[in-house]
Amino acid sequence: MDSRLSKACINLRAVPTDLLDALCSLSGRPPPPSGPHLVRRVHGQVLYAVASLPPGALQPGDVNAATEVRAGLLNADVPPAADAAARCIQHTVDDLGPADLWTLARDTAMTRDDLAWGAAATLARERLAQPDSLDELAAQAIVDELAERTPCRWGRHHTDAVRAALYRTLADLADVLLEVSESTPTPLDWTADDDGWRASAVISGVVHGVVVQQAENAPSAAQPAWHHPSPRAARTAWQWRITNGPTGRASHGCGPIPSALAARHAAECAITALAAGRCSL
After folding, report:
1. Which of 75, 158, 224, 261 could pair covalently with 154 via S-S, beta carbons 3.0-4.6 A apart?
2. How far apart are the C-alpha atoms of 57 and 65, rounded to whole Å?
3. Tens-of-pLDDT digits for all 281 residues of the chain?
4. Alpha-carbon torsion, ordered 86, 88, 91, 94, to 10 deg
5. pTM above 0.85, yes or no
């Protein structure tokens, strides 16, 4: 296994066969169907393309930025490696026909917001020279038609919108791998309870409590554009909080975060930063 993938397994304490599911969880997406499924094949191609990049070559978010640059939605300079990764994603998706595009979009729990971004990117690319003030309405019309039509009745705008949305979804996955493989979490001994997970860490002789629980007052998660069998719990938002000392008067937390695994990983990275003096409560 590539060293970047191995490092991601270590940081998430996941066996190689579970790594893809873990990375999907961190990116807020459901795990792909088991077995030799299209979604696993496409995700695997993207991960192996990013895994070949040397440590430090890119920062998390670079692949997503390159995707937006290629879509004409962002005017910025991006590292050549990020553009190469975005181009690999684009080629992988462009090889798929409408039926496979729909399968990939459905099984990644793509939302109407995702599709709206894809439709907007498609229209923006077509009208770089003369943007149309009605593009937002046109993008919404494309989304409505996608939800109503079967793939065999999609036109060019529909397939292009789904492709563009998939570019960004897969770029998110690539950026998650970059972040996880270069992160420095402090492994904690988590205990599950009715509210979530709890752990503790000793920093400079002081016990710090760590809690991961469902986020309070978090906005409702966007629903998939097409039915997805993942349980509603898989779309629950989470948050983490670290307190110090017996009274826990000083604390710091973050949320909402798309999954419990992502929240635990973020909390472990925060403990590392606290221990190194890079931040404080």
Report:
1. 158
2. 15
3. 568 999 999 999 999 999 999 999 999 899 998 888 999 999 999 999 999 888 888 999 999 999 999 887 888 999 999 999 999 999 999 999 999 999 999 999 999 999 999 998 888 877 655 556 667 888 999 999 998 999 999 999 999 999 999 999 999 999 999 999 999 999 999 999 988 999 999 999 999 999 999 998 777 777 889 987 765 445 689 999 999 876 667 788 999 999 999 999 999 999 999 999 888 87
4. -50
5. yes
Ordered by start, the domain boundaries in the chain are 3-181, 191-275
Picking from 2, 12, 3, the residue whose alpha carbon sits closest to that of residue 188 is 12
Based on C-alpha coordinates, what's the Rg of the chain? 20
Q: Pull the structure tokens for residue 156.
A: 């060019």
Amino acid at 265: H
> To which residue do tokens 């990013």 refer?
50
Alpha carbon 115 to chain centroid, angstroms: 16
Question: What single letter denotes the amino acid at residue 217?
Answer: N
Residue written as token pair 């790594």 = 19
b vs e for 50-63, b when ≥16 Cβ sit within 10 Å of the residue's Cβ?
Answer: bbbbeeebbebebb
Alpha-carbon distance of 193 to 121, in angstroms, equals 44
Cβ partners under 8 Å of residue 179, min gap 6: 60
